[in-house]
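User: Can you fold this complex?
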Amino acid sequence: MTDKTVVIFGSGVAGLSAALELAQFDISIKIIEKSDFTGGHAIRFACKATDKCVKCGACLVEDKLDQALRNSRIKILTGSRIESISKTERYAIRLNQKPKYIDAQKCTACGVCLEKCPQDGAIIQGASRNHSPFFAINEKECRYLVDQSCSQCQEACPEKAIALDAPAGQVDCEADAIVWATGFSLFNPQNKPYGYGVFKNIVTNMELEDILRREGGVIRPSDGQSARKIAFIQCVGSRDAKLDHLWCSKICCGSALRMAELINARQPESEISFFYIDVQTFGRDFVPFYRRVQEEVRMIRAIPGDIFETPEGQLRVTYITGETYETTEEIFDCVVLSVGLQPCEENLEMARQLNLKVSDSGFLIPSEIAGEASNNGVFNAGAVGGPMGIAESIASAGETSLKVLKYIGF
Amino acid sequence: MAHLTGKTLLIGNGACARRIAEDILTQTSDLIIASTGESFGLSTRPASMATAEEGAKIFTRTKVHSCRGTVGDFKVLLECNGEKRTAAVEKVILAEDEKRISGFSSYGLTRTAKVMALSQLGELLHELSEDSSPISGIKTVVFLVGIDTESNSVIFEEIMQACLKLQAVQKLKIYILTKNLKVAANGLEKLYRDTRDAGVIYIKFTHTPPDIIQLADGSVCIEFTDEITGSILKLAADLTIVEEKIVPSDYSTDLSRIFELEKDLNGFSQGDNVHRLTVFTNRKGILVAGAARGVQSLPDQFVDADNAVLSLRNIEKQPADQIAGKAQIENGKCARCLTCYRLCPYRAIQVNTRVSIAPAACEGCGICLAECPRDAISLVDQTQATDSGVPVTEVIRPAGESFIPSITAFCCSRSAASAAQLSACMGKKLPRGYQIVEVPCGGSVSLSQILTAFNSNADGVMILTCHEGNCHSEVGPRHAQQRVEQIREHFRSIGLEDGRLVKKTLASNMGVEFAGTLVEFENQLLAMGPIRSKSEKE
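Assistant: Here's the predicted assembly.
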């Protein structure tokens, strides 16, 4: 083992990939994850294979998390955020850790806590078998943590694994280099005229990934019934000059059309419409895939206007197409918004602390492109530098790992 | 014949290959470069290349003729102007450049002074600068891209850059005609807006493709329905630029054959399998980067180059003699039938005086041992199931219940075994009598393993493999399917329900589907009742 340590912020696919690459060189790795669960956004993605793999890459995240947890050189700290960071010889990082409300050693993932909890969203479920504990307490929703009015989960836990008054922690660590792999945030579509957050049956593509993963099919959130008429609306918060979002999020065409194909295979009675500006090329087999999907999915080149709910709880969507040159109104059971990838708010603050550059769009610029004369040992990997899918994030992590190796003199 | 030895052989002559070479040469000069070009053209001379003797061995106008061996010990035959050289190398990197095929024929056009391919325009623009005199006689330029078949962001970026450059030289009317504008690459949406600001007009077709007619003077006239207004418009182009398709070079195709590599459906030298990301192939020690593995922009090719260098360093880190989990042929049992040689997806079987398995090239999938007619192959230190090791299912029957089916599920360790754990975490309902036998690959489950499971009290047996196209060894699900069909046929002939043996596909993150698949199977077995042999016993 060498005495070199690299701290990686973010345990998504880029952070995990970089950790695995660097650990091969006997470097100690600490992955710092702010949320309760490892694996980033992509750990919640559904496998979109029908009978054949469609190369979405979602399984790779599970794979990498598995490998990282089994690697003795890699330590992962969840629920941790930076308190301070400074550099003398090495980086000194102080982290604040969220209280460990659920004891990972004791929790058997039986799910009694979730059953007992009276507050929606106060107990969140993991997505991977590698999420241990498999449940987490949402501090914003938990009644005990808000006003101590409820501790049913703690009392009900058969393993006595829950302690709602657990103390917060603080951890110090040192690093020879830092990899910034905190990924992206999702565009919040509440300000678009689609009624997201008001009408229950409007979900984002990311929420649909989660629904497919949990339920194995599309259900309407309002009543749990299977949805038949489903609309995907693309480019919500991407390619949008009004928002100053002058980028394509890259992943949504592939994600939406692959999900559409999966839904068609699992729920043959479904009718899927796909509202788009341009269909992007994804995957090596795009040409045959696109030919096939055009027969299964109704492709409509239009971005709809307002959406309203009918008295029956369905959704009325208005749009204009070039096919008829007229406005059309149509009723759907469920509308999926393909929300864009956008920079995390923390990018600016981190850039200030670590002397990094941020582009006009808000994504981090790699230091060598930013024209830094001397690299200070901070690198970025994955979607923190711009929208990226799983394959590209893995490649980006590889590229970054080589830079890190060179920087620390390997 | 001249002999060479070196650690790494790099094949290629483009920007990606140069980047890889320059990077490797900063650390070591132990590199052989085989380039088909007139010169390789390293742009920098790294410190390690201080003298010619110490520098990399660069062979230009050189092609690979054949290759034998496995990682750590490849014997490559190089051919240069009829002269042959053998090279013994540990690792190989393929970084050949792409080939471009112009799309004239798909638009029914022929090349004239007024119709040119995208690369041709590129060459023309390369010579132009902002103070060049305008190209005479040209007012309207039309780009045809992605109308006949879908294009990609690499071609679109070239087109958009060309538009900006043209506009900088002279004021033109530029039209880009397409079906889907491809902007899924860094900075492309912004570039698209810039071209629009520079006056470029985009015309997109959804339902009605345009009529493209080449006139007698060689110019092109296009008639189309405007999809916003519905009116019919006509466009006369002084210059028409036709898109190009990016395909692997002919030599790249040869290399795939020589090195026995999987190809994707476009012919690039990397199987379309997520487990090959980023620069890996089905063969250990052979890496593929840049345009040799797919359609990629130059920045992406450089990312590939860095990944190749990193993976190269990684391979050096791995102990070559590690044999745990690898297949091994037992001395004295092998009859030299070469079944394993034919089956191995990783080309890890070496045929010399004896047939042996190169541990460094073996991935431990066990496909060879499932088919070995002499049972001569085993996985070293394998704790997972073997023929005799299929545990007997004991189902404890609660009082009052007459029949609980006992299920043995062979689960691929890369997929279904993980899915099984996830379904337990998610608290999904599972059958009451089932057991999981974890196997390295669905293709490693032999006929006798399946029959042993039935002999050990199973009412039903499942083989749960990765999805086709996701199997690390690529062929596992197909082998599993073949064996299942073989036994099912046998079952039918002896009057046993063939539904007692099924093969299904799952991914590691399919917790819900794992439970669903097992419960569905349990229900089918419930309908069938206990397996005959067992009921007879009772």
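Chain A touches chain B through 69 residues (CB under 8 Å). The two ends of chain A are 13 Å apart (CA to CA).
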